[in-house]
TrEMBL record:
Its EC number is 2.5.1.10. Pfam families: polyprenyl_synt. One of its GO terms (cellular component) is cytoplasm. Belongs to the FPP/GGPP synthase family. It comes from the Bacteria. InterPro entries: Isoprenoid_synthase_dom_sf, Polyprenyl_synt, Polyprenyl_synt_CS, Prenyl_diphosphate_synthase. This is Farnesyl diphosphate synthase. Its cofactor is Mg(2+). The keyword Transferase applies. One of its GO terms (biological process) is terpenoid biosynthetic process. CDD domains: Trans_IPPS_HT. It catalyses: isopentenyl diphosphate + (2E)-geranyl diphosphate = (2E,6E)-farnesyl diphosphate + diphosphate. Keywords: Isoprene biosynthesis, Magnesium, Metal-binding, Transferase.
Length: 300
């Protein structure tokens, strides 16, 4: 295991339990209907890497000591919203997936109607958590503004709409990059932005960190596309080879597997270079954020 992988694993072992503990607050009176609560907690507790809150926390750890409980709550709010997006993505009217993380998707367990409402509940609850997290009010407002933009019709939802409208129509590389910048990259951009807001990072440093976030987000989607054609259903916990069957726009569909691996390497190197350049400028250690790039395992 590389030094970066070891760093990331150590960080995950320390902070994933704290994020999961924070998410257990869902059982503390936030939801006022028993079946809805079961549906919402079912998907939140179905596992996952907690990548997005971890990115926020990694920025915080780079600039300060241990995150406060208020910062943990604000970071974990993003996981609520991310889970909503997965529930809705899996619905019959969207991707129509039966498995997510190796277990039945929300609508397979609770029906499409309740799954839709579970997603609605998680989406709106994310903003309530931001507004009630024990952080300065100016930061609460900045986070609400940033997340509503990232998740809304100028961000993730725009990407999802473009994905649906582009089925059976081949996009070029610039169009595909724009689609993924919205659909996948917007929430990863916000994850880093949220850490910057709470850590009060200087504007010029934040600009570099957000460039890192954007390249990381692009790499994440390229890697996801690659796994869909190279990994097994058991490894991913969901069906594979779905994108090609549904004529969705993907990097392997545009470049082939070998070309996609090369593109992934280039984007990961670009993400890493943003942190290297920033460290050379201010002398700060960004090895924790850089370690997130070890997530991408490129097999030759």
């Amino acid at each position: 295991m590389s030094d970066a992988s070891t760093t990331l694993k150590k960080f995950e072992n320390q902070y994933v339990p704290l994020v999961n503990q924070t998410l257990q607050q869902l059982n503390a009176g936030w939801i006022d209907q028993s079946i809805l609560q079961s549906a919402m907690t079912y998907s939140v507790n179905a596992g996952g890497k907690r990548l997005r809150p971890l990115l926020s926390l990694a920025v915080l750890r780079t600039y300060q000591d241990q995150p406060t409980k208020g910062q943990l709550m604000a970071a974990s709010a993003l996981e609520l919203l991310h889970t909503y997006s997965l529930i809705h993505d899996d619905l019959p009217a969207m991707d129509n997936d039966e498995l997510r993380r190796g277990v039945p998707t929300n609508h397979m367990k609770f029906g499409a109607g309740m799954a839709t409402l579970a997603g609605d509940g998680l989406l709106t609850l994310a903003f309530e958590w931001l507004s009630k997290a024990d952080i300065p009010a100016t930061q609460q407002l900045a986070l609400v503004r940033a997340l509503s933009h990232a998740a809304g019709p100028a961000g993730m939802v725009a990407g999802q709409a473009q994905d649906i409208s582009s089925e059976h129509h081949q996009l070029n590389i610039d169009q595909l990059a724009a689609l993924h910048r919205h659909k996948t990259g917007a929430l990863l951009h916000y994850a880093v932005e949220a850490g910057c807001i709470m850590a009060e990072v200087k504007d010029e440093e934040q600009e570099c960190l957000l460039k890192f976030a954007d390249q990381f987000g692009l790499a994440y989607q390229i890697y996801d596309d690659l796994l869909d054609v190279t990994a097994t259903a058991e490894e991913l916990g969901k069906k594979t080879h779905k994108d090609a069957g549904e004529e969705k726009n993907t990097y392997p569909g545009l470049f082939g597997v070998a070309g996609t691996k090369q593109r992934l390497k280039q984007v990961v190197e670009s993400a890493e270079s943003q942190l290297t350049d920033l460290s050379c400028t201010n002398g700060r250690d960004y090895s924790l954020l850089n370690a997130f790039c070890s997530y991408f395992k490129i097999k030759e």
